Amino acid sequence: MSFPSLFSICFDYIKEHTQDIVSLEGVPFSPVIEGLIQHLFTSDTPLNPSILSVISESHSKELRKAQLTWSSLLLSKAANRSAVPALTAISKHFPKFITCLKLGQSNICNQDIFLLRGFTNLKTLHLGQNPNITDRGVLYLTSIISAAPSIGLPYLEDLHLCDLPGITDKSLKFIGKIPTLLYIDISHTNITELVALRYLPKMGYRRVTERITPFQIKSAFDIFANTKFYWFIKELAFQYDQGQIPRPLTVENLPNLNLPTLHFSRTLTKHVDTVKKKKPFVESRPVNKKQRLTTNDYLAMFEQEIADDD
């Protein structure tokens, strides 16, 4: 007669009482947390927002490193309604669980970018094919990234702004303020190719011919690879829908094939730090003692930059 191991007893308890767990600190990510996540998304066990929040709070670093399909999500529009209710639901309940988010063709606008506050483990963000997103949306995104790590996007590496006709050269200065970014797709926007080729290399970027994603997950944005999670969020979003009125599109939602394909990537190395050390006079300026700006400070500064360019 075989007896269950202590591990299986503990694991079974966690699986059966996910709604009662308030912390998983000290529990090994592999194999326990990984096994729990796979069980949650592949079994008949009901999902609940609390366990997803607990996992991301207790194992943020491991969750980002694991590159799991389960923490990746595609939110698209349905029946001409935007994905805002679903995005709102996630932002309220378990934003830190999401490491990869595709909002392409989701009918979101500039103001909806602020819902990304709290997605602190996000590494890949796709905003393409949302004609209501303009330079101001990129400004808002940069203001979030500049915020405190507890509410910002401190690990964002991969940003897709393709097929956004409202994006112009103004956005390049905001993109340049994202220190963690390794890859940017600004294809089929109204960014001038020559301006991008002159400006982005100064930030360490090089143009690449193929799409390179530092945080690439196979089938990450495939609804069939994450079906249970998709429908769970759809149901959760109903409480935030409140008879949402379909939004009109302000710009033609078709990419202009005459616009250039622009992919840029860079490698953040110690060489960048070495270059900084060669300019000690910059670091010794009194103004650098006040570098700790608030989100509102950054937002006001960026708003002024846009106003100056208008």
Automatic annotation (TrEMBL):
Gene3D superfamilies: Ribonuclease Inhibitor. This is Uncharacterized protein. It comes from Mucor ambiguus.
